[in-house]
Every structure is written in C-alpha cells, then in structure tokens.
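Dear Dr. H.,

I hope your travels went smoothly. While you were away I took the liberty of generating a structure for the chain from your last submission, since the lab meeting agenda had it listed for discussion. I wanted you to have the full record in hand beforehand rather than looking at slides cold. The sequence, exactly as received, is reproduced here:
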Amino acid sequence: MKKTVLILILASCVFASSDALALQRGAILYHTSRGDSIYGRAAELELPCSTLQLAHREMKSGHVGLYIGNERVIHAVTPSVEETASVNFIPQRELDEGCRYLGAKVPVGFDAWTEEQVDQLILLAREQVGKPYDIQFRHQKGPDTFTCVGLVEYLYEQLGYNITTEGYYSGGAGGRTYTQNYTCEATLGFDWAGENAYTELVEFSSFEHPLADPLNVGMIHEDKRYMFFPYTQYMQATTVDVATDIPVSGGGASDGDGDGNDCFIATAAYGTPLHPHLGLLREFRERYLRTSSAGLLFLSIYERYGPSLAALINRYDALKGLTRIALLPVLGLCILILHTGPLPLIAFSAALCVLVVYRVRRRKALQEV
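The corresponding predicted structure, in token form, is as follows:
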C-alpha cells in the first residue's frame, strides 16, 4: 500500500513538472538570418544593396513568431501571415543557410495573465492569418499588412501591453549609427553613402538606402525613413527568457508536403494552389527541372526570390491578371514538352540562336556597305 502511494506521488510530481516546463502559449520565438546574422547585433549596421537582395531572405533582419500552443506558431512571412507547425519556424533550408534559434521570451508579468487573456491573444492572432506581408515595410504593425516583428507587437498592443516603446530614432544618444557605402546596380556601380541607425530604446530606427525612395520602402517620419527590426524587440527589458521545450527547426516552410506551396508566383496569380494550371507546372518541374543541373539552378533562384514577387503580385489585381497572361506561353511550352519530350524545346532554342546570329551578321554586312 505504501509503495503504491509513493509511486502515485512520484508520478504526480513528474507530470506536474512536465506541465510546468511546457512552453507557454503566447511566447515569442526569435531566430537570426543567413549566416547567423541579425540587424543590430553586429557593429556594422549594413543593409543589402541590390533590388534582388531586398527580398525578405536577404534582409538579414532576423525573424519573430508567436507560439500558440500544441506545437503551433503564427508568424508573418511572404506572401502572408500563416499558422504552421512549430518545427517549421526555422525550415531545414534556412538551418542549412546558417539561421540560428535565439530563444523564446514572454512579457514581464505574463504569469499573471488569465487563460481568457491568452485565449484572446491567440484568437486575435488567428484573425490575422492570410493578411499580406508588408514587403515595403510601410506599416509593419498592420492592421492590414504586417512584418514578423510588427505582427507580434501589434497583437500584444491590442491587449494593452507595449513590448517596445513607440518612437523614432534617427541617431545620436541612445543607440548607434553607421555609414554604409552602397555599390551595386542600384547605384550604377558608384559609391552611395547612407547612414543607418539602430536603437533598443524605441521601435523604429532610421536608415538610408539608394532604393528607398524609388521603391517607397520604410515608414516616413519627418522626412526620414524608418524600420522596426526584430532584434530591437528581442532586447527589450519588458520581456524575460523562457525555456524552449518544443521543436522549432528542421521542418519545411509550411504544413504541406511542398507540392502545393512552392509555385509561389502562379499561386498568387490564380489565387489558389489548387488551380489545374499549377498541376501542369508541378509536373513539368518534377520531370525536367529537378532532373537537370540547369533546372536545379533555376529552382534555387526561384525559391529564393519567388515568395517576394508573389507577395507583390498578391496585393494588386492588375498584376494578377498580367501574370496570368504572361504564364500562357509558359504553360503552352510545358504542354508541348510534356507530350512530345524536350526535342521541340531544343529545336526552338537552336532556331532562335541561328536567327540571332543571322540578324547580327546581316546588320554587320549592311553597316560595311
């Protein structure tokens, strides 16, 4: 009898400690970007220069997500806010690129929140699923378009808790500034000096970039452009570290098997991953692109920049229509190759090369005359 009671007591202790260790719903998860970089941590406050590098994965700004329980996360990614398994918070591809988990935090005093308050936070988070990612960083905190850090800040603010003090830092005391010399196609190869700033005191830090005005990137305040960086939120004294006892890395980019979620541009154009044209494109990809070195190179480039282009297309109906028109010859070529093999493509490419050479020689001959 005594042995049975002792076993029951020990078992209850184990289960109690297990429950205590479970990551709290509402915890905020953070990870770095490629090469374990995150804007604000290094001494050099550098931003990518070229247009292509401005895609989200090249920003090296880090990433933030909200844990909602049952090993599920809600976060803002391109093209839109999504709910996914926590293991997908850092997909395997990003792990391979050097992204590293920083940890989980909760607001100070979060233990005093009632279950109803936490439920309200998670319900609010789920209401944002599907809203576009703010690829221009023009709003960041919604309410209609978000960045990752802006989404989490917005959710807590709606419940009356400000994680990061509102405000704009343009340099001077309370932070640091760095002069970056941009040299890329955006500057036509010339040096372009910009002053980038970072602070932990307020949400938005100023930055200068050769493409900021042409692409209208960043929030404008008193003629300066600003951005909210994840590391600013991560460093706040208003949060405390909590242990992470759930899987947060090594998964895919979504809950699917990848077949329905990697035709980014076509999905944005047709408005659904179930459109029959996407099945045709996926079949072509599996039979020809994944089986050749040139095809794999194309896919690596597409997977890097496709989500950002899809996010832009997803925001404008006119772009959706133009993209569907642009896809028509691509679809026709796919149908032709899938039914007859790659020979027509090879013949077409050869004929095109012959035509180009012919026209160049003819023009040269006319000039000599």
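Two observations you may find useful: Residues 1-20, 256-261 have pLDDT under 50 and may be disordered. Residues 137 and 218 are 5 Å apart (CA to CA).

With kind regards,
E. W.
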